[in-house]
Amino acid sequence: MVEGKINEIHGWAAKKRGLELEPWSYKPRPLGPHDVEIKIEYSGICGSDLHTLKEEWGPTHFPAIVGHEIVGKVVTKGEKVTEFNEGDLVGVGAQVYGCLKNTCHACSHNLDPHCKEGVFTYNSQYADGAHAQGGYAEAVRVDASYAFKIPQNIDPLHAPPLMCAGVTVFAPMLRKGVKKGDRVGVIGIGGLGHLAIQFAHGLGAEVTAYSHSPDKREQCMKLGATHFVNTSNKDEVEANRHKLDYLFITSNSKSNQYNEFISWMDFEGQIVLLAVPEGHMKFSPSEFIFSEVSITGSLIGGVNVLKKTLEFASEHNVRPIIEKYPIDQVNEALQHMDAGKARYRIVLTH
Known about the structure:
By secondary structure, this protein is α/β, with parallel strands linked by helices. The chain contains nine helices and 17 strands. Strands 3, 4, 5, 8, 9, 16 and 17 form a seven-stranded mixed beta sheet that branches. It has a six-stranded parallel beta sheet with strand order 12-11-10-13-14-15. The radius of gyration is 20 Å and the shape is globular.
């Protein structure tokens, strides 16, 4: 059995609910035969990190090291790992284990985030009872199937957001077959939205960016949008009804706004939720019958989808716009993110 090199992992953890992290260390699970040990160089801050720290999505197991946009180098590999060598630059996303069996209903459909045996990168538990800890740390150990080689033409500093935000927006585009000429809308031009524009543009879609911030118009056009709609301008919204085949919702829009979104869609259009609005959405059956519009959701992406995300980003120059903070300023970075001031993703340097 191969022994890991880093047998006490130091990181920044929350000891209780809130955005105050402090130095903390833990002893990782033994390195399994199919695992890799990664020395972390960069980690991205995702909105999920804040929701987890604030327990907005349910209870959090403390102490908690969050972070599931991880990039670093392999320093140790289990004896059955053949696809990586020490020194390889890899990324890790929001999942660190799935059974990946053909007999698994989820994994066999490339939906391993829904695997009953799956383990997320943090605030999740392995079958042996150990709690997974994330990327705001010096190292992490994961199943090698959930580590991904970073293409050489992607700067490692810009790679972390692709591991969660990137795959989150690209996965439903792949599953739904977005193609050249499709009319795609993106609402919420932030950490997810600015990447969604780029991926949709790379697929050849006609992209419309929706935002209540008119100062984002020029940047959206540079990212690949064909049209920009200022949602604060009633005339612009009215002129763009019934014009979309797909609408990807990347912002925490109020639940009662979804009725308005239906009117933006053409017949048989699809609205895809990539963010979680507060409260419950209310619709009458007639809204779906007479519009012939459907509403669905998407949860990150499995192994095969994440590989395709990195390949596509490499080939089509999809890159996040980032701000960087040193890891010892993680609390300042979290406050900056929580205030909605990040443009558009934050990457921590280790």
